[in-house]
Amino acid sequence: MLERLPTVNGQFPCYDTCAFLYIQMQLCTHSPRGWLRDNQILPREPRRIDSIFKQIVEGVAYIHGRGVIHRDLKPDNILFDQAGKIRVCDMGIASGFKKLEGHEMTETRTAISTPLYSAPEQNYWRYNSKVDIFSIGLILAELSVRMTVEERKKIFDNYRRGIPNDDLIFDYEESRDLICYLTKFDSKERLTCQEIFEFFE
């Protein structure tokens, strides 16, 4: 049982045996979630969508390049710094992965994520880093198509079931085919981060 430290004038006293950990982080006050909310009415600028998404892919490529799966990518876990650059955050449920002869191994993992943005295989315990690719495909869909909360759930569930959303109206039409490649039901058919970069060339 932890003993409550006595306070002196409302402050915790410091002793020679006290140790404190201070974490300094970059101040980020905005996220794509706020950008989506603020740009719900008027058509969205394709160049801004393109910029946001490419930076997200760069962040995910960096994470994957270090043998880590984020497992919970969503607009709330992506931030804009004061210069407007993307920062991928909240690595609280990230997991490492292994490679064998240059190929990533599919491993047994916990079924943990935000269900709305999760890949279909995240419910079945065995998956690899392609779950992050599925999630950023949904994020790109949300950036490219103005949708209500109810529409978003239906659209995302369709992608999760392998049902194409052919009737969607895109503000960023160039993303339509890319989203299809990112949200393939079979994870083996999804693009890697490198292949996404090549898609834009």
Automatic annotation (TrEMBL):
SUPFAM superfamilies: Protein kinase-like (PK-like). Residues 1-201 form the Protein kinase domain. Keywords: ATP-binding, Kinase, Nucleotide-binding, Transferase. It comes from the Eukaryota. PROSITE patterns: PROTEIN_KINASE_DOM, PROTEIN_KINASE_ST. Belongs to the protein kinase superfamily. Ser/Thr protein kinase family. GCN2 subfamily. This is Protein kinase domain-containing protein. It comes from Pristionchus fissidentatus.
